[in-house]
Amino acid sequence: ETIQHYYYDEAAFDYHDRAYIPLQVADAPEQPLRIPEILKPDQETATDVYYTITAQTGAVQLLPGKKTATWGYNGPLLGKTVIFKDGQTVHIHYINDLPEVTTFHWHGLAIPGPIEDGGCHAPVYPGQTRDVEFTIHQPAAFVWLHAHPCPATAEQVWHGLAGGAIVQDQHEAQLPLPRNYGVDDIPVILQDRRFHEDNQWDYRQDYDPDGILGPTPMINGTINPYFDVTTQKVRLRFLNGANRREWRLHFSDDLSFTQIAGDLSLLPKPLKMTKLMLTCAERAEIIVDFGSYRPGDEVVLYSDDTPLLRFKIHEFKPDHATLPDVLFETPNPAVSPEMPIHYVTLDGMDEAVAMNGKKFKMDRIDYQMPMHKVQLWDIENTNHAPGMIHPYHMHGTGFVTVARDGHAPNPNELGLKDTIAINPGEHVLLKVWFDVPGVFMYHCHILEHEDGGMMAQLKVVDPKNPNKQYQLMDHMTL
Ligand code: C2O
Ligand code: CU
Ligand code: CU
Description:
Blueprint: H1 12-16, E1 31-32, E2 43-44, E3 48-60, E4 68-73, E5 82-85, E6 89-96, E7 105-107, E8 129-135, E9 141-146, H2 153-159, E10 162-168, H3 170-173, E11 185-193, H4 203-206, E12 216-219, E13 225-229, E14 233-240, E15 247-251, E16 257-261, E17 266-273, E18 276-278, E19 283-289, E20 298-303, E21 306-313, E22 342-347, E23 354-355, E24 367-370, E25 375-381, E26 390-394, E27 400-404, E28 419-422, E29 427-432, E30 438-444, H5 447-452, E31 455-461
Parallel strand pairs: 1-13, 3-6, 5-10, 11-14, 13-21, 22-25, 24-31
Antiparallel strand pairs: 2-3, 3-4, 6-8, 7-9, 9-10, 11-12, 14-19, 15-18, 15-20, 16-17, 16-19, 20-21, 22-23, 25-29, 26-28, 26-30, 27-29, 30-31
This protein binds CU-O-CU linkage and copper (II) ion (2 copies).
The site of one copper (II) ion has 4 residues, from strand 7.
């Protein structure tokens, strides 16, 4: 029972939309895949960890010739990998060394909003700093940090403000999974860019209200990357960090692989597959077994027909470890009887995008719900096929996918998720609850749709502190 399709109409939207830009291999030599370093804590105790994260400008040799001007966290491009441990209290000192305001959003962390969460109400102005503190209470997962100023999230992420973070917990630590970071456990951040004259990016010139695309795959900030395989099994932590592109992933020889985790948790069971699609902001962890290859062989990861990453096989020791049949028990709390279904519509395309018929407004709260109550949310994509898939994302929580148009969700959606593809015309039913209070955004994660207004925000009310007021920004001046 190997899954051999993507669970959706392949590339339907791409054929329909004349603005689609297919991927293309860059005319450039191959380079070793950049593995982001692990971010060193400033200090760590048994219960607390302290980090400094600086948003900065830089320049990187991505192609032969001129360096590309980029932005990054604690480095010129993307970020260092941050480690969070379940139960730990995290203290972060943010520094903004950019020429404009930014925010630091933890996509996938269940931490209070709007300040710790780092959406548009937590600005850090140029030359300024901000300190936050929060405690991690969630299962092991691969989450991420990205800029979230409104309405310039798309442009700042395009400049390079995105980085991965690994949440570790006791349960995952005991499973026989590869976890030697950089050797058999590697992040794979999937992005695309267009290089203009002198190897520069030009967001304004390439702008598309339905999401910017570039023809050149960029993996962990590397063009034409390869990775040296020195173990039989390698765990890849995919993150779709592109503004708008979907990745339809598969390997040469139709090599099958095992998906073990989705966005915010391990999957209930390991799933064998040959094809995996990721919409914007989604994550998937897979284990690839190179046991049938010999030193000197090459295995290629593709999206559609374009090679993304070459795995060069070296000598390795045989690895006969098998995965348990059960990896994770997805929480499934009963719906609170007093909570009616909450309906969300994702409307329109281009400049006309909206949510429930309205464009996002920073100082408007669109919905309220009490903390710890469990509610069904019905998310509808009101586009008709072959319109765009909207990757629907919620801050501050992980949800359970209950149904797609009345059918069972796809088997690789049965763990906790924070982002889910909604096909044109489709209704996806989610079970939603919050264990932290505050103001949180929910939106399409095509970043230009988000900036364009396909976004809303809710207030999660702590029954112990029901009158807490939140200071909301009404606009942000870059
Ligand atoms: Cu990845 Cu509003 O977030
Ligand atoms: Cu988010
Ligand atoms: Cu969208």
